[in-house]
What does this fold into?
Amino acid sequence: MQKGQNKEALEELEKAEEAAKQAKANDILIHTINIRGQLLLSLGALDEVLRICGFASNFFADILLKDPEDEFFQQSLQMNLNNIFTVGYFYQNAGRFPQAKNAYETGLGISLKLLQSSPQDEFLQNYTGTMLNNLGTLLSDMGRIEDAKNRYEKALEIYTEPMQYLTIGRKAESIIRLIELNTEQAEKETNPYNQMKCLREAFQICKEQQEFFIKYERKHERKLVTEAGLSAYIDFLMKNVRLENNSEKRAKEYEKALQAIEKLKEMEEDETILKLCSSTACYLRGRKLVNEALASRQPELELLRQAVEQFQNAKETYEKANVCFCVYIGLLKILEDVNELEEVNVPKLKELVKKVLETLPEDVNPSIRVSFENIPQIFEEKDKLTRKELLKKLDERVSAIEYKALENFFGHIHEKIKDYFEEPFSLNLIYENWKLEVIFDDPEKVKGKLTIKTVNRILFNRALSKEEIEKHLLEIDYLKIGYFPKGEDEITFTTPGQKKPVLRPIDYFESVGRGNKTRIFQCDCCNGVCVDRDLKLAAVQLKYNAYGENSVVKLTTDDAYRQKVMTILDAVKDEADIVVFPEFSIPFEYLEEIQKFADENEVIVVAGSHYVTEGKLGEYGKIFSREFEEEDLRKNISPVVIPSSKIVHNEKLLGAREEREIYFKEGMKAGKINHIFKLRDDLRVGLMICYEYLNADLRNHLIPACDVIVVPQTNPSPKRFYETAKNDINNPPCSGNRAYIMANGIFTLEKNEETLGGSTGIVSTLDKSTYGQQNEGIIEPVDEVMEQFILLASISKDFNPAKDTQVGQIPIKTKLIHIFEKNEIFSCSEDKGKQFIQLLETIAECKDRNELREIFNSEENKATIKIFSPLMHKHIQNLEELTLDEMKKKCCCILILAE
It folds into this structure.
């Protein structure tokens, strides 16, 4: 309608409405009322809109009570109810609270009447919940706190299972509003007992509603609620403790609170909530120690030192705890200085207090500053007062500080909640298997182009599609866009004209099986290793002895073993980009020397694995990319030594049967870190430690992101591993070529002389003509003799298994380097051993093809080789069509000299 014709249009619509009523033409009447209501709303005639839409909604409701399935009346009812909501919203924003209340109650009365007959109707639940929430906020603004709480509580009663996106959002809002209202009421109350009642209610709501947030994976809201609940709990505790004058009794109250938080931690799996609980526990432990320190006649400085450590741990998670840390470290310095009260240097004490005051945050409570400033005054009067009176005064000052040190520990949470309710649209994030799911409560509120980004990467930049709006779901495949997250992100969501972005923190923990979580990082190794060619990889099968001690697996080593490891590395320095040693085969002590090798030769070394033990705990930071702490004890880690870089490591998530906890034995501690190694844009290598490879969840997380997966293992039964690898090759979970390398040891356990393991090998993508040769890459024992060797493999990234190409493609090339130890050769027979070594030297020095063939064809030489290496004997058969170098390649070896 053109401007200026609105009055005439309204008059005509009123006439049409009256005529439709007289003719009992309900369809025309409904259509006319709907148009008239929308026109009045656009003109801002709110009172008239409320009257017309209220009449219409009651009219439609009466019809729907008789026929709930009538879609035409349902749509008309929804339009008019939404108009009533809009009227209330406009009135509320204009500060016309009585009119807003009237509008909300009008719409609410109609929806509640319909909800009685259709309790599971999604629109009615969402509308009723929204009206109750808005009415609660309105009543709170009007100062009618109890009435407001009543509306929020009523909103929680209307939702039924199964819940939909919209109603999940409304219920979350009701819970957060109710908690916030109780905490705000506690701030306004002057009676401490009334304050404690409100805070107890807030904490109780938090506990009761945890299951809802877990069930519907509302991580952001759950964190807000948990923070608010813990904030209320600590405030309750502070007020309760403040009513107690006895420091010893206060300490006991803190201990009760600490036990409650620790119990909450035991039930918790979410890392973000665990951090929050840990910080709270540190704070409570610090408060407990402070009161224990003050309970004695003279403050116990050691307990105060321990308290300072706890506050320092708390401040690492929450900046507000910094107040407590600064206060108590300052107090500790002062008490250390005045410990001998008879000889207090007051000028020096004043200077110390001045320095302490300079360290306090600017927003610290003024009474804390005053309490510090007053401490020197006590000792200026020391000639007039007894020691007992001095201590009493000092205790009063300290107590004053103790009361004020950490008020509003979670004060920032109220700002977070305020920001949450001001968001233009509400969303939830779920991250799993490289995909970020963004679930919108009401995607219709996302207007225009949506930009989603992290600090330095745009993840999404377009309007939502019709299908995404209908499903309330947007899915971002990180692998498709080439984004590898680094543990945590803060993701921003913005649309054109939006005043503030919607912010959501996300922790990229991947769930693996039941109760296991890991972070998968990408480590950029694009530093000259394997540039623009096939990947050359060396899998080492070597002999060692492993044993258990104090719940960890250790390795028997000596100078000869170290020499063997370094000789192997020297042998492959020009033939491999990556060298993989078996699990448990490289101790921590060898890593600095291996790092030097890697730097000099531009070779990446997967240095087997080892258990983190207490004796080496403080040394990791010197050569690893991060420090190790007490919580890392008994982790089985695989160090990856990268040229010109600190060592990166993977942590074994799933222990083998022998590594697991049982009865009173502590087992391997589950790790939480896994790295993928990027050699270039089109080549990434994954790493799984032994038994981890059999876990389908973890494997399926890594396979889509990796071209090659290496598996260092100390494995007595590798057959299952190859069956799994072949199945993943033959029935690939995703497109692209893959190769799986098993680097197994040949090992003895404890004092048992039986040798286990072997069968190091590679399984890779082949085409239909070479598929039958798949087992050729698995080097199984010959005549049940397990031997040491290096399996060299050159893997083509460009191989196309679907069709042959004009370049004559080769999927994989392999080579063996046998490892012989002089001590072992002579242990069989010294004469035979000397003969074998001489034979190897003759083969290496031979320069004539026919002569070399005669050497190999000699039955005596064949028999000698078979004694010491059935594997080499197998490979020197049928040499007729080979060149000199090709024949030599069949018996390539390194000899480890005796000590």
Notes: DSSP finds 31 helices and 27 strands in the chain.
